[in-house]
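Subgroup meeting minutes
Present: P.N., E.W., G.H.
Scribe: E.W.

1. P.N. recapped why we're keeping a running log of single-chain structure predictions: easier to compare across weeks, and new members can see raw inputs and outputs side by side.
2. G.H. added today's entry (329 aa).
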Amino acid sequence: MNGTTRRQFLKPSAVTSTGLATWLALDHAPVLAQKRELTFLSWNHFVPAADDELRRQAEVFGKQANCAVRVDTMAHLQMPAKVAAEAQSQAGHDMYRSAGADPFLYEQLHVNLDDVVDKLGKQYGGWYPFAAEMNLTKSGWKGVPWFWVSFPGTYNQAHFKKAGFENPPKTWDELLRMGKVLKKQGNPVGIPISHCSDAHSTYWSVSWSFGAKVLEADGKTPAINSDKTAQVLEWYKELYLEAMEPEVLSWDDAGNNRFILSGKGSWIHNPVSPYNAALKEKMPIADDINHHNSPAGPAGAHSAPPILGIAVWKFSKNVELAKEFIQFL
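Output recorded in log:
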């Protein structure tokens, strides 16, 4: 057997020792040994199965892109504070579910996504105008439109038929008239007048349908002090006193869901989540729940649904990977 000289042994040992020393000094494994991780912050969807599907899609993408995708979800009312904290510290997730004015509030901290929006628009037939209103800033697209939440009328058909109404309300004035009868029957209607997102969505639908507005078309001149705004407030006051109950003053965004599913409520202005919940839990009331277009007013039918997008932070180290994931979704 041939022996190994000290010189032969020391040469590879020196290389190994140098590599190990470098690894320890850097305090992390070599880049080639690390698997990329993309992190995405989203909300707790009102239909939990949607979160399961999002995580499934993230797993599929991760396998295709040879990376790990971590989807974190939290209550939607907690997200503004979390997003603000990440913006302040410039650390956190790579991307997040944006909403409302996020693309404008954090315009300088969001990655420009013009290329992604242009590609997807050409591929799938363009974008609705309101998608641009919520994501397109003066410096470009700072969010990619993801989905929007419809706010139809959700009503209990059995309660309406018992009150002598074969069809749901087509206008807000009809809702007021029907609501008075339904409340006397023991089945009030419900619109949140509280500190929650649903209260805003419904208020703007009612307000715009009556022709009221906050600003003129120039975006600068105040217009809220008007006869039409006064009509909206009087309508709300009458609906509250004669067709609703005081509980609407303390509702959160799940309050109207609980109200219609309790069997007492007759009508709410809300997405289809309570119906989906009734189906999932095999609740008999599911057979009585139906939906109709949001009511109209003298100025037509208008909606103010939540328009949600996906934004990517500039401090992310996975910008291109985040763009790929958005296109995959």
